[in-house]
Design goal:
With 169 residues, the protein is an alpha+beta fold. It has five helices and six strands, in the order H-H-H-E-H-E-E-H-E-E-E. It has a four-stranded antiparallel beta sheet with strand order 2-3-1-4, with helices on one face. Strands 5-6 form a two-stranded antiparallel sheet. The chain is globular, with a radius of gyration of 18 Å.
């Protein structure tokens, strides 16, 4: 991993500056061009180092709906089902797990009813039962990973990034 990639991950995993041109701000801080910042981010996502790069919205606070869902996918269909599920814009954070329910993902929608609609769409597309695990309590678990020059990964205390002054439960 390059020093620029490492620095970008280490410095900005908690959020980007809330300015008109955040990538230009990153470029100045990293002493590279804005184009290089965008190329670096694209490369990290394309190579699988980052699973995604983008904002995380609290759908419920915005009047929408959100749930954790799971599928029991036959191994021979896993890639096909993953592609079908991931094609939906409402789906995020899709992971394989070593469990009978081997595909877990988050569904976030603009309306509360949209969650049920999306889960029904997934069931219809895949022919599989969708297990719905709606949030009962919210917990805040802060975790930052620090990448060392030798690519070792350690945890570090989450810095106060001042995103929202809201209590976490």
């Amino acid at each position: 991993m390059s020093s620029v990639q490492r620095e970008l991950i280490n410095r900005y995993q908690g959020g980007l500056p809330l300015v008109e041109r955040p990538y230009a701000s990153l470029a100045r801080a990293l002493a590279i061009s804005e184009h290089e910042v965008l190329q670096t981010i694209t490369g990290l996502v394309d190579s699988g180092v980052l699973s995604r790069f983008g904002p995380i919205y609290n759908a419920a606070r915005l009047g929408g709906g959100q749930t954790l869902a799971a599928l029991e996918v036959p191994e021979e269909r896993f890639a096909e089902v993953a592609d079908s599920v991931n094609a939906l814009p409402e789906v995020a954070h899709n992971y394989r797990r070593a469990h009978r329910l081997n595909m877990w993902f988050v569904v976030a929608t603009a309306t509360r009813d949209g969650v049920a609609d999306t889960l029904q769409t997934i069931a219809a597309r895949t022919g599989l039962k969708v297990y719905d695990f709606p949030k009962q309590h919210e917990f805040y678990l802060g975790l930052w990973l620090q990448l060392a020059e030798d690519d070792r990964v350690t945890t570090v205390p989450v810095p106060d990034v001042g995103i929202l002054e809201t209590p976490h439960r």
